[in-house]
Write a structure and sequence with these properties.
By secondary structure, this protein is α+β, with helices and mostly antiparallel strands. The protein has three domains: about 110 residues, Butyryl-Coa Dehydrogenase, subunit A, domain 1 (Orthogonal Bundle), CATH 1.10.540.10; about 110 residues, Butyryl-CoA Dehydrogenase, subunit A, domain 2, CATH 2.40.110.10; about 150 residues, Butyryl-CoA Dehydrogenase, subunit A, domain 3 (Up-down Bundle), CATH 1.20.140.10. The chain is built from eleven helices and ten strands. The strands form three sheets. Strands 1-4-5-8 form a four-stranded mixed β-sheet. It has a four-stranded antiparallel β-sheet with strand order 2-3-7-6, with helices on one face. The longest helix is centred in the middle third of the chain and has 37 residues. The two termini are about 25 Å apart. The mean pLDDT is about 95. It binds acetoacetyl-coenzyme A. The site of acetoacetyl-coenzyme A has 27 residues, from strand 3, helix 6 and helix 11.
Length: about 400
Amino acid sequence: MVLNEMTRPLSLALTDEHEMLLAAVRDFAQREIAPVAAEFDESGEFPLDTVRKMGEMGLMGIEMPEEYGGAGMDTLAHVLTMIEIAKADASHSTILSVNNSLYCNGILWFGTEAQKREWIAPVASGEQIGAYSLTEPMSGSDAGNMASRALLNEAGSHYIINGRKSWVTSAPFADRIVLFTMTAAHEKHRGITCFLIDTSRSGFSRGKTEPKLGIRASATSEIIFEDYACPVEHVLGGLGQGFKIAMTVLDAGRIGIAAQALGIAEAAYEAALVYAREREAFGAPIGSYQMIQQKIADMKTRIEAGRGLIYQAIIAKERALATGGRYTTEASMAKLFCSETAAFVTDEALQIHGGMGYSKELPIERYYRDARITRIYEGTSEIQRMVIARKELGLR
Ligand code: CAA
């Protein structure tokens, strides 16, 4: 049999540094985040204090080189962190993921040296919050179809940006945003350019904050540009490169969302295990009945299969970063499978808990609500399937 890239045996080892990070993040997440998660979910308040603490621990720019204010670690470190933070609270992991994967990566991979120094350091260190803005009210999955515009002024010094973007994670608190907008509408996706936005400049404002089903402590809002004058030095990666940057960055982001989904699933699974051992019905713990055992077996098997896909995606990403090439399919498969797994596992965990699972007195219903977004953001499950199938069929 000929082994292709995807069927190569996995090899991924935790170093002492990973082990130390894992222990520190697990301790922090369970001690500082888990106890306040329900309260922040209920109020919908942005958890600024614990987000700042994640910054102090180096978690807000975990893969960024130390010279740019990051922790200088790798994708496995990012994944381990995402799983542990998501197990405690999915909202915190969303904020962390956008800061790391969607904001910092693009600037690291496509920025000039001056841009890296100016735009990564404050966000990777956690002093400031970063966001990523691609979606618009009338363009979500069809990301290349945008109505917002950036036009060069007569002096050639600034792009004047106008339009409305939607569903921007962390926008209500973001200091900096990587923005994708049209500079040449007739060129379709090749007319999209990426701009580095400073939210303190005039012409920028925030629209309505979304009242969400889950990840309620992660603030999401519209952002509005009204003659925002963006200096030409704040174009990232060159004119017309925006779509490629957006997609490249999303490949990395999707591994993070897969890890988030796995973390939510693990939290629900572990709670279901405890309940299945303790809860008695018909004179015995419910875990002694085959119908519950079937659920436990299926939940565990899917979680471990998801972990395998994430590890495969990490290997593919590290290989691509070292040698060029892409890991789009691996990232999409991990995201697709883990987000569908989170839906399955949180639903089964709720079923095992019965009425108690439906009550706000336990975190199960929160896991169930939080899991739902992982099948939608950073590309719906339908888009992941489209990406995987197009590659398999040789359509792209
Ligand atoms: N990496 C690099 N380049 C890529 C790429 C990738 N992963 N995917 C596509 N491209 C390139 C292609 O090579 C092609 O390049 P050329 O112009 O040189 O030919 C170009 O981009 C266009 O590609 P397609 O023809 O495949 O583009 P498409 O219009 O058919 O769309 C899509 C492809 C995969 C459906 C894409 O639109 C997509 O991913 N949509 C989903 C968008 C999404 O995930 N949105 C979520 C936003 S973030 C968020 O959720 C909010 C948040 O804050 C968390």
